[in-house]
Amino acid sequence: MYVAVKGGERAIENAHRLLAHERRGDRDIPELSLAQISEQLSLGVDRVMTEGSLYDRELAALAIKQARGDLIEAIFLVRAFRATLPRFGATEPVDTGAMQVRRRISSTFKDIPGGQVLGPTFDYTHRLLDPQLADGAAPDAPATGEASTGATPRVTDILGRDGLIEPSPPAEADVPVGDLTREPLSFPADRDLRLQNLARADEGFLLALGYSSQRGYGRNHPFAGEIRFGEVEVEFMAEDAGFAVPLGSVALTECQMVNQFKGSATQAPCFTRGYGLAFGQSERKTMSMALVDRTLRARELGEEVIAPAQDEEFVMSHSDNVQATGFVEHLKLPHYVDFQSELGLLRKLRKEFAVANEAPPMQEAAE
Amino acid sequence: MNAPAYNFAYLDEQTKRMIRRAILKAIAIPGYQVPFASREMPMPYGWGTGGVQVTAAILGPDDVLKVIDQGSDDTTNAISIRKFFGKTAGVATTTSTTDATVIQTRHRIPEAPLHAGQVLVYQVPIPEPLRFLEPRETETRRMHALGEYGLMHVKLYEDIARFGHIATSYAYPVKVNARYVMDPSPTPKFDNPKMDNCPALQLFGAGREKRIYAIPPHTDVVSLDFEDHPFTRYRFDAPCALCGAGDSYLDEIVTDDKGGRMFVCSDTDYCEQRQQAGHRGSESAAPHKERAHV
């Protein structure tokens, strides 16, 4: 006998209760604190802040805890909260040249003013599982030294002095910064919106696209001109006061890729830029972003658009993991009605097929 | 910690104004897809965020809200959205099509005729009817601007050439106000005629794709077809097993693994109203009737 498809309300409530229970795990194991997540899973927090587009470590840690460590779900939680926040305006452009550098490397010059600063990095570690860490061994205290007071100018600025690389487009104070979370996106999109899209984009998606460009699908010969990670001051122009007010500082990773460009009839050959910027220490993300930023400039630089990584509509329409996961997972929702429609059509077509072929004895009987 | 505090119907007033402007533009240009700055909602994209944003923007404290998914008030997503507005807006909710002032729907148009003053809000996954013929937004917008719909007619013609029928059974394209070809959202084509000259306002929200479009009351909505292959509705040829209705769209319920199945109204409110009015089907658990053998 038919059991009505009902009782959904109770089922949802119970499912959510069970989810909360599962999230907590074995209650004999101490519960994770937000501080533990923020301190010990800090790169996960950085990713959630970056792709969630909200610089708040505590909320990002909460989101990771609530999402049971599913970072895309955590990003979604942060985004949904961010969407309800009022917008006061845009900050002054941050000066990454004045960054308090905690890590800074260039792969284009052996030595640079301010030096190569390795900082905390997985690079050159041997990826051997560490049983001592499993036992909770305390690590050695870090080596310390005198902090350098010297400036750490950006490598691209050094190249730019000789005109070897295209200049960074200057900030235009009168032109408002585009914001695709406040204005619907239309194509072709300007670079500010493309960069915003890439900054929010799924790290894995950008990684794959950047990788594809390295393997020849839209190749543009990149060098990691510089990657730097550290704290920068954020300032906001207070109209009433008439000057920029410091709001605090944020940790950022910036990657400037240096790419080949052959020049044209009107332009001397020079290097071109690909740019990546993310909250926290997010090197894979910023490097991938810089590669894709550069491939997406194909149109602007008169290159033939032949690869997915060069196609801004393809990249920008599919880069957002909150959008992508929602639409992929919506297939879990009931589709009885459309399916019924398709079933009806298919049965009709099969019936007509059977009649037309006058079903020989071996053929499967029509329904 | 920045403890969240939310506005009436969740969205802030600035966002609602932005959405209302898009809705007004959509009403002014029937069938035209108006881009809007869709927000992240607290439910996933593809689960009705466009419809939810439209509903949030038009909902007032006196409204009575009905939410259906697959025609039913009791499917999990319909319950989730109804509860969301019950919680964030505190509006009255109903399952009755006639009593509701705002009906948010996924994949169906109610069987009971809508009346003036009602708003039907559709959840739309892919607003662009030409999307599967041309993946590029830049191209499809140009095609709409020029009214260049030949590609769609060729697709429908190719269906006829291959299958003898137009092989689109849901999300069947329509022309609105003799101008824009529009995707009616994945409603079965059975529902298409209900959109034509409807006294209620029909609003369509696509959150992920950031588009809103509308059919104002009493607008011509024509399902695309050919003179020699006119548009036809599809309905499984059986009465509803619960209420005996012979005019409603039916869900197929598989009852065993031996080919047993029954057909019941997909619109649960319609079915219940009919049962209350004394209509009976072959499987009704009606007291005055022998219960069907299990």
From TrEMBL, chain A:
Residues 133-183 are annotated as: Disordered. Residues 133-143 have a biased composition (Low complexity). It comes from the Bacteria. GO terms for biological process: organic phosphonate metabolic process. Keywords: Lyase. Pfam families: PhnI. InterPro entries: PhnI. The keyword Lyase applies. GO terms for molecular function: lyase activity. Coiled coil: none annotated. This is Carbon-phosphorus lyase complex subunit PhnI. It comes from Bradyrhizobium valentinum.
From TrEMBL, chain B:
GO terms for biological process: organic phosphonate catabolic process. GO terms for molecular function: 4 iron, 4 sulfur cluster binding; alpha-D-ribose 1-methylphosphonate 5-phosphate C-P-lyase activity; metal ion binding. It holds the Pfam family PhnJ. Keywords: 4Fe-4S, Iron, Iron-sulfur, Lyase, Metal-binding, S-adenosyl-L-methionine. It catalyses: alpha-D-ribose 1-methylphosphonate 5-phosphate + AH2 + S-adenosyl-L-methionine = alpha-D-ribose 1,2-cyclic phosphate 5-phosphate + methane + 5'-deoxyadenosine + L-methionine + A + H(+). It is an enzyme of class 4 (lyase). The keyword Lyase applies. Its EC number is 4.7.1.1. InterPro entries: PhnJ. Coiled coil: none annotated. Belongs to the PhnJ family. Catalyzes the breakage of the C-P bond in alpha-D-ribose 1-methylphosphonate 5-phosphate (PRPn) forming alpha-D-ribose. This is Alpha-D-ribose 1-methylphosphonate 5-phosphate C-P lyase. It comes from Bradyrhizobium valentinum.
